[in-house]
Specification:
The protein is α/β, with parallel strands linked by helices and about 350 residues long. It has 14 helices and ten strands.
C-alpha cells in the first residue's frame, strides 16, 4: 500500500498538459504543483516575446520543478509548425532542408536548440520522421524532409544530433509513419494502407535512424494501419506497435509520448480518460493533453484507476524510471534556462 501511495504521488510525471494565455491561472498552477505534473506544452497563445517566455518558463520551473525537474515543451518544427515567431529565427519547412546537406540541417537545429534553451524550453516535439507522399498532401506534406527513406533518415539523424547536443530533448514523430494519408488526425482517424513490409522497409527507416542516434523521445501517431499486425487500434493505443515493435524489435529505450489525446481522430470514438488509460497500458510513458477541462478530468480518473489497481504499478514504475533518466540528463536545476543572454541566441 505504501508503494502504491508513493507512486500515486508521482503519477503526474506521466502527463504533459497545457494552459490558456500568457500565464497559468492560479488554480491551474496549483494543480500542476500539487500533483507533480511532469510538464507543459506551450503554444502561440502562451507567447508574446522572448523576455515574457523566459519569465514564464522560469516561474514554471521554480514553482513546478521542486520535486522533479519540469518538462517545458513546444512544437518548433519550422515552416507552418513553429509556435514562437516574433523574435525567433524563421525556420523553413523541413522539405526545404531535405534538399540541402545534412550538415546544414544539423547546424540549423543547433540554432533552434540554442534559441529554445535561451528561453527555458527543454523539449521540442521535432523532428518529423514521417515520409511525405509525392504530392506532399495531407497533414504532413512539407513538414517531412522528403519521400526517400534513406535521405529522410539522414536528415532526421542530423536534426536530433543538433537539438540534443545543445541540450534540448528531441522527439521524433509520428511513429510508425503518418505521411501516406491525406487524412489529418486533428480532424478524423486516419487509416494508412501500408502493409507490414512497406512500413518496415520504408516508413520505419527514419525511426530506426532516430533510435540509432540516441533520440530521447518518440511520439506515436493517432492512425490505424489495417494491413499491419494490429489492424484495429491506432498506433498510439496499440501494445503491438509500442511494446512489441518499438520496444522489443527496434530496441527503443527512451520515452514514448502520445500525440495530443484530444485530437478528433481519437475523440470521435473514445473519451480523453479512456484514451489515456489505453495508451498507458499499451506502453506509452507520457500522455499529452492540451485542453484544460479534459486534462483535469482525465488525470483524476486515471489516478483513481492507479489507486484502485486497474493500472498496474509496474507500468507506472517503468515509465517513471525512463522519465527521470531523461530529465536528469537534460534539465539541470542550476540551468533551467540558458545563461546566454536572449539576444545573443535569438
Amino acid at each position: 500500500m505504501k508503494v502504491q501511495t508513493e507512486l500515486a504521488s508521482s503519477f503526474g510525471q506521466l502527463f504533459i498538459m497545457a494552459f490558456d494565455g500568457l500565464q497559468p491561472q492560479p488554480e491551474v498552477l496549483e494543480f500542476l504543483i500539487a500533483f507533480n505534473i511532469g510538464g507543459v506544452i506551450l503554444f502561440a497563445d502562451n507567447y508574446s516575446d522572448p523576455e515574457q517566455l523566459r519569465d514564464l518558463t522560469s516561474l514554471l520551473q521554480k514553482r513546478c520543478g521542486t520535486r522533479f525537474p519540469f518538462f517545458i515543451a513546444t512544437d518548433h518544427e519550422g515552416g507552418r509548425v513553429q509556435r514562437f515567431r516574433c523574435g525567433f529565427t524563421a525556420v523553413p519547412p523541413m522539405a526545404k532542408c531535405g534538399m540541402g546537406a545534412t550538415s546544414e540541417t544539423e547546424e540549423l537545429h543547433r540554432k533552434i536548440a540554442r534559441e529554445l534553451r535561451a528561453v527555458g524550453i527543454n523539449l521540442n516535439f521535432a523532428p518529423v520522421a514521417d515520409l511525405s507522399s509525392v504530392e506532399q498532401a495531407g497533414a504532413i506534406g512539407d513538414r517531412s524532409f522528403g519521400t526517400d527513406p534513406v535521405m529522410v533518415a539522414e536528415h532526421v539523424r542530423a536534426a536530433i544530433a543538433g537539438l540534443q547536443r545543445e541540450g534540448v530533448v528531441a522527439c521524433a514523430k509520428h511513429f510508425p509513419g503518418h505521411g501516406f494519408t491525406v487524412q489529418d488526425s486533428h480532424h478524423e482517424l486516419p487509416y494508412i494502407g501500408r502493409n507490414q513490409e512497406d512500413l518496415w522497409n520504408l516508413d520505419l527507416v527514419p525511426f530506426r535512424a532516430a533510435i540509432d542516434v540516441g533520440v530521447e523521445a518518440i511520439m506515436t501517431a493517432h492512425a490505424v494501419y489495417p494491413y499491419s499486425k494490429d489492424p484495429d487500434s491506432p498506433a498510439s493505443l496499440s501494445s503491438v506497435w509500442i511494446r512489441t515493435i518499438l520496444r522489443q524489435q527496434m530496441g527503443f529505450p527512451g520515452i514514448v509520448i502520445t500525440d495530443a489525446i484530444e485530437m478528433k481522430g481519437l475523440m470521435t470514438r473514445w473519451s480523453p480518460e479512456t484514451c489515456g488509460y489505453r495508451a498507458l497500458l499499451a506502453g506509452s510513458d507520457v500522455l499529452l493533453y492540451y485542453r484544460e477541462a479534459d486534462q483535469f478530468q482525465a488525470f483524476d480518473e486515471l489516478r483513481r484507476a492507479l489507486i484502485s489497481g486497474e493500472i498496474p504499478l509496474s507500468v507506472v514504475e517503468q515509465s517513471l524510471d525512463r522519465i527521470r533518466k531523461v530529465k536528469a540528463r537534460y534539465i539541470k536545476r542550476k540551468h533551467w534556462a540558458s545563461k546566454r543572454p536572449i539576444q545573443s541566441a535569438i
